[in-house]
Known about the structure:
Elements (H helix, E strand, L loop, with lengths): L7 H17 L8 H41 L14 H36 L3 E5 L5 E4 L1 H6 L11 H7 L2 H9 L3 E5 L7 E12 L2 E10 L1 H44 L2 H28 L7 E2 L2 H9 L5 E4 L7 E2 L1 E2 L1 H16 L9 E6 L3 E7 L7 H6 L15 H11 L3 E6 L5 E8 L1 E2 L1
Parallel strand pairs: 7-10
Antiparallel strand pairs: 1-2, 1-5, 3-4, 4-5, 6-9, 8-14, 10-11, 11-13, 12-13
Helix pairs in contact: 1-2, 2-3, 5-6, 7-8, 10-12
Amino acid sequence: MKLPGISIAQKLLLAMALTLTIVSVPLLFLFDWQTWLSGLSLAMLVGAIILKLLTRNLFAGLQALESGLLNFKDSDFSTLLAYQNDDELGRLCQLYNQAAAQLRDEKQWIYQRELMLDKVLHSAPQALLLTDAQGIVVFSNHSAKALLNCEHNLEGMKLDKLAQQASPALHSALSEAVDGLFELHPEGVDKQTWHLSNGELLLNNQFHRLYIFKQLTRELNRQEVAVWKKVIRIISHELNNSLGPISSMLHSGKILANKLEEARLERVFSTIDERISHLTEFVQGYGKFAKLPAPKLNPVCLSQLLARLQSHWQFQCTQTGTLPPSRQLLADAAQLEQLLINLLKNAHESGSDPDGVGIEVDFADQHALLRVVDAGQGMSEHIMANALIPFYSTKSTGTGLGLALCREIVEAHHGQIHLKNRPQGGLCVEVRLPLSAV
Length: 438
């Protein structure tokens, strides 16, 4: 027989009452009914008290076990049961405590892994977007917010709406959702090459789409420079192999010319000697670019470096910010000085008045900004797009390696270099170098 809504204690008391009633029925024939009823009531009261005393711990353990299971249902594994008796319920409570401890440890481990994964995803240079089957963003990292130029969180927004607010190239990439390369042209920054890869995955029995945007500008530039360096090394090797024997034969020819006392031969050999010296210097200049060593990073004081440069070059120096106390500039002082010398040389050769050449210094929380400015004619869009490419030069006697060497030095320091025309006329070369914690 099922008795819904009755607790175990009530069922035990009811069973005891029925038992006493059945046992006491034969006694009704020995005593009058009033005596029998009084004895039955007294027996039931004594039995209930004894039963309550015997089952008090049992009921408390069952209630604790019920509360613990409700906590399990709510994913709370912090509650342990205090029932420790050596009986079936005690062993059940002990098993519950072991399961709770194991689940609590596993939950903490999963939580720590989720924190680490979240930190890695938000710190990743790739822009990550995860959308559900309805095209609503359910996850985005900091790089994705920067790519879409959004200051607020992207979660909960429709991807179509975000794509409409993006640049045409990015809008096309998001709309077509086809893996491949595309270019962005942010204002005031050199063009950037990005690669999009996307695909579907199943999460919580629902299909989602993951978009991964990776900027390849630096990698493509690095591979391009590596190819140029290989070409330069091969050409330099061949030229050096030829210049050595030519110099030796020139020396022998000069000795023979002195014996013949022929003035025309002297002029010929002098001209050859001059061109050999020029070609040797030319090859050495290219070799400096092709064999640029890795920078030796040490703390650098910019004010001392700029003061040393001012003794050799004329320029105005202004500083609009201060270096944060917890930050320092780590760089190769010799390479940084060579970088600024090349930029100052270009500034003075731009046709600018010497008083219009200057270096502006500013500090952000994580970067040092160096701007070399002049008052020349600036650059056209075509020249600016190719100025950092090796061998590209608009000067009749230029090697095309000055700005390319500057870019190589800056990128070796994990920085960035940008060219832009100034509104008041002239060119601004902005160098952004990372600051390190003290």
